[in-house]
Amino acid sequence: MNANELTATRRSLHAVAELIMAGPQYRQSGTIRLRVTPGGFATVTDPDLRVEGHELVVGSERLPLDGRSFDDLGRETGAGAGAPENLYTDGSGASLDDILTVDAAAAEHLEKSLALGDRALRAFAPEATPVLWPEHFDLGITLDKVNYGVSPGDGYLDVPYAYVDPWEPRSGDFWNAPFGAAHPLSDLPDLPAFFAEGRERAT
User: Fold this and answer.
1) With contact defined as beta carbons under 8 Å apart, do 164 and 117 qualify?
2) Which of 45, 79, 159, 176 is deepest in the core (most CB within 10 A)?
3) What separation in angstroms does the CA of 101 have from each of 41, 69, 70, 122, 136?
4) Local confidence band at 171 (pLDDT 50, 70, 90 cut-offs)
5) What count of Cα atoms within 13 Å lies in the side-chain half-sphere of residue 72?
C-alpha cells in the first residue's frame, strides 16, 4: 500500500458512503447518518448496506468494490445510487459512472482508523453516539458547541487524523489547524486524552 493507493481508496470509500449508502438511505428513510461497524461502516436504517474491507455487503451477498461504477452497484443493491439532494454543497465530487479504486490493504487501514476513532469517542463521551457523516467522510460527535472526531484523511491532511473543532475560534498553541486542532493518529498514543484536552482548552 502506497500513498497513491491510500488516497484513491479513501476517495472511493467516501463516495460509496455518500452515493451508495447515505443518498439511498436519505431517500428511503430520511437520514444521512452512517455508523462504524466491525471491519467497516454501514447505514443506520433501511436500506441495510455495509462496507466490510474492500466489499459491499448486501444481505448474504458480498460485492467487490474495486473496478465497479456507482451506477452498477446501485442496480445490484436495488436501492439505486446518488448523493443526498439539497442538503450540503460539499461532498465527494463523484459521479455515477466513475470507477471505484479500492485497494484491500488501504481499505483495511482506513477502516481501522475509523474503528479506533469510534472506540476513542465512546470512551471520551459515553453519552454521545459517533456519526460517520457522508459529506466529509469523518466520524464525529458534538458536545457544548465543540466537534470532536476522526477523519481518514482529506484535503487538509492526507492521512488519518483526529480533530477538535470549536464552533467559535480559540487561540493558543493547542489550536494548530485553521478550524481548531488536528494531529495524525500516528502521533496520538492516547486518543481519548487528546479529546479531553481539547474539551478542557475549549472551555
Assistant:
1) no
2) 79
3) 17, 10, 11, 31, 18
4) very high
5) 12
Write the DSSP symbol of residue 69. B
DSSP per-residue string spanning 146-166? EEEEEES--SS-SS-EEEEEE
Q: What percent of the chain has pLDDT over 70?
A: 100
Place of cell 457544548: 144
The position carrying cell 466490510 is 52
Coil, helix or strand at residue 99:
strand
66/57 Cα distance (integer angstroms):
14
Instruction: Give every CB contact of residue 118 below 8 A, 6+ residues apart in sequence.
Output: 36, 130, 139, 150
